[in-house]
TrEMBL record:
Gene Ontology MF, one: nucleotide binding
Signal peptide residues on this chain, from the entry's feature table: none
Domain of life: Bacteria
Domain Gfo/Idh/MocA-like oxidoreductase N-terminal: 12-124
Name recorded for this polypeptide: Dehydrogenase
Pfam families with a match to the protein in the record: GFO_IDH_MocA (PF01408), GFO_IDH_MocA_C3 (PF22725)
Domain GFO/IDH/MocA-like oxidoreductase as annotated: residue spans: 133-242
Organism: Phytohabitans rumicis
């Protein structure tokens, strides 16, 4: 750290990649307390001229500026190469999701940062969405009773900026991570089917049926083929269901009015009836800003709930199983190779 404003220490942050997400990272880094964006790496430069920090063409040039940590927002195919170089130079890293394009590459990144004791995290931004944070807290408090099913829908138009991975690695990793996180469970088995209709070599639609370690059923529908943009997570249980809309950061509860039935004749029947609907008032902070604040705290050595590389590895492992399941048309059991979430 160095004294940048004469009063308080600031971390020297670097950014790798100036795509759509990279520019969002640059915006947040440029306005954060306790952080100074000191350099950006992108071989294409900054044609807009909007980045106030120096923009350099190579990682060596960026490292020469001097960094406390870097945000890796380049295409997934380069995550391993860049991450290993950052670790070798003692630089902490926040790596955009997915952690890597393969399980093996993700494992090498975990080893590189853990062996050096460097703070490192994965940018699974949905964990910082206010609706999902509220949902997780309510599930932990037992407000839904026994959880039966988690259903996610994540669909919208094809993003032309994505060229190196398909919809499973790019979008479904959001749903894999958030499902394990909000329930506190891991995936036990998955069955997936994919299609490709956009003329690209990668899949652009996936449908998933899975089971978590506690028996909870999971369904994911993810695609790049819909003109409707949708981001929803529905958790159904004994007392009703929660619906989280992560586009609007709204959380709604639909109560099961039959849950506390006092009529003796019906008490033995575990049915469902429409009950009250509650839309919760939630403080809505930008998830990307919260994610950066948590990672800044981790780099400073403070207690912080970042998404660890091991958790990111687990998500890549499940995503890899989805692709293999779809390819071979089989149901796969997820081996517990990386420990608890």
């Amino acid at each position: 750290m160095s004294i940048m404003n004469g009063r308080e220490p600031q971390l020297r942050a670097g950014l790798i990649g100036l795509g759509a997400m990279g520019r969002n990272h640059a915006r947040v880094l440029s306005n954060m307390d306790g952080v100074r964006l000191v350099g950006v790496m992108d071989p294409a430069g900054d044609p807009t001229g909007a980045i106030l920090a120096p923009v350099v063409p190579t990682l060596r040039d960026l490292l020469a500026i001097g960094l406390d940590y870097a945000v890796v927002a380049c295409p997934t195919a380069f995550h391993e190469e860049i991450g290993l170089e950052l670790a070798a130079n003692g630089v902490a890293a926040l790596i955009e999701k997915p952690l890597a394009p393969s399980v093996e590459a993700a494992e090498r990144l975990v080893e590189a940062f853990e062996s050096r004791g460097l703070p490192a995290g994965v940018g699974h931004i949905e964990r910082y969405n206010p609706s999902l944070q509220s949902l997780r807290a309510r599930l932990e408090a037992g407000e839904l009773g026994e959880v039966f099913q988690v259903v996610t829908r994540r669909q919208g138009p094809f993003p032309h900026r994505i060229a190196d991975v398909g919809v499973v690695m790019d979008l479904a990793t959001h749903d894999i991570d958030l499902t394990g996180w909000v329930t506190g469970q891991q995936y036990k088995s998955v069955s997936a089917r994919t299609v490709s209709r956009s003329g690209r070599p990668h899949e652009d639609m996936v449908a998933v049926v899975g089971q978590l370690t506690d028996g909870t059923m999971v369904n994911h529908l993810v695609n790049w083929l819909s003109p409707l943009k949708e981001r929803s997570t529905v958790v159904t249980g004994e007392r009703g269901c929660f619906v989280a809309d992560t586009l609007t950061a709204d959380l709604t509860f639909y109560a099961n009015a039959a849950f506390d039935n006092e009529w003796d004749v019906l008490r033995a029947f575990r049915g469902v009836a429409e009950g009250d609907m509650i839309r919760y008032a939630i403080r809505k902070r930008e998830p990307l800003l919260v994610e950066h604040e948590r990672f800044r705290d981790a780099v400073e050595g403070k207690e912080s709930d970042i998404v660890s590389l091991r958790q990111g590895l687990r998500t890549v492992q499940v995503a890899d199983a989805l692709l293999r399941s779809a390819r071979d048309e089989v149901t796969l059991t997820i081996a517990d190779r990386v420990g608890a979430r």
